[in-house]
Amino acid sequence: YQRRVQGGAGDGEDGPKIEGEAKFAAVDVVTGEENENVVWQKRARLFRFDKESKGWKERGTGEVKLLKNKENNKIRLLMRRDATLKICANHLVVPGMELRPHVGSERSWVWTVAGDMSEDPPTEEVFAIRFQTAEIANEFKQKFEESQKEAA
Predict the structure, then answer these.
(1) Residue 83 carries which DSSP code?
(2) Helix (H) or strand (E) holding 143
(3) Cα–Cα distance between 61 and 82 in angstroms, integer?
């Protein structure tokens, strides 16, 4: 198979003719994290329990962060999906939350959230989070529980 192109490449005959230089202005991206310090951050996969199908649905894979507000010292859990950066978990870490081991995995934890802010309106969710190793999962539990004590 041989393709013949008449005219030079990029002359508008075989596609758009592009001249000059593209100039882009710097854009300030507001993430909502500007007034917070990262307490802890690692990569994880998040699931939510679907009550209708009575099974776990993947919510996303990405960086999970514990963020401490500089003004009120409240700590929240925030997780964004890798490719889209869409928020898949966003809630305050409060004393009443209990991290429970996920059945059959030493790398996972399960907890219930009264008002997850990643959806509008906020929803009650049962989350499961899985880390690459048991060590990272235990580190998460330790930081999560420390955050709960700070919130008390």
Answers:
(1) T
(2) helix 134-151
(3) 6
